Amino acid sequence: MNLFEKTKTISISKEQVWSAWKKVKSNGGSHGIDKITIDEIESKPAKYLYPVWNRLASGSYFPPSVREKEIPKDDGKVRKLGIPTVTDRVAQMVIREELEQILEPIFSKNSFAYRPNKSAHDALKQCRKNCQRYKWAIDLDIKGFFDNIDWGLMIRALRHYTDVNYHIFYVKRWLKVPVIKENGKEEQRIKGTPQGGVISPLLANLFLHVTFDMWFEKLFPELSYERYADDIVVHCHSEKQANYVLDMIRKRMIACRLELHPDKTKIVYCKRNYKKKLLYEPKHKSFDFLGFTFKPFQVKTRTGKFITGFRLGISAKSRVKIWKTIREMKLHRFVTKSIFELGNIQHLNLKIRGWINYYGKFRKSELAYVFRVLNNRLVKWARNKYKRFRNSYYKARKWLRKIADSYPYLFVHWLCGWKP
Q1: Tens digit of pLDDT for each residue in 367-389?
Q2: Which residues have CB under 8 Å from 236's CB, separation 6+?
Q3: Cα distance between residue 216 and residue 233, in whole Å
């Protein structure tokens, strides 16, 4: 640290800002309200990053407004993302990295989102194991979690773990930053933290660590749960216990100014081959978690006998989402391209690899239904491109199968065995 940096009131170094910038750049993302992109900053880093350091280190940094973008959800509603400027994301990353060193050691082992060396697959593995240990599960859905975080409770939680003054006042400024809506109007907020901010996931984890994780583990040490951000699954031994636990969680959420979604929160029976059968048919026998559905499956044992097991596989919503992506790519219209070029169109092979890596982790065979749609799209492309196939789906598919046998590397799902 040089003499000039020592005169600053806050001990944030230029190296911290540069490290934060490299992480923001690697994460990518769109511009904010200033329309300054990552490429522009990369071309003149000193011009944009020096003021960030100068203001952060002097305590005079005030974040600009956040650009709101509405993302359609599967249920017809929209998810509102708040996109900060690129330089503001750098500033957030600086404070986030400092707070992570303090908060990461105290977070629960049952919390998996946005944490180093933890992933959604880890949460799913633990959930699968707990579904074998417990007969009942509570699928919790917090209504509008990110939009309803109480600022007062958030700051109280933050003060409990850090006494660094600038951590507190910078987080306050990011919480209170106004949002520029898509119609150009500015909106002041009184609660919540914008989804899309660099520091928002850490603040969300902290809030739920205090309001749920610590509380639950103290009150119900004999039970288990998994939490991925605001997606929570709690495991219980009996339906009576599940009803009691759910009632206690609902009261806890109200006390913390949150609300469980009345329709999406449910108690699920993890049906398997139990010796003691239920005398009635439970209302719910499956639940979705992180893009997978947990439900009863017929499982073949080593002796060849089929039994009922409670397993997970890609959810119907996830399949529909992938099919929608495939249809929107309109591959059948790229008739000027050769079969060898199709895999690079709109990064198709990268998307296929991502789907296989994520959804193929459990019950990979179920992806056959997903890629059947993609293969049909490729057949449609062949029929549009070559006149000899216009009136024959069978001939086009047979030709495509020969191509897949000769050049399986053209599409990632062909390499995995899902050919036309």
Answers
A1: 998 999 999 999 999 999 999 99
A2: 134, 135, 136, 137, 138, 223, 242, 245
A3: 12
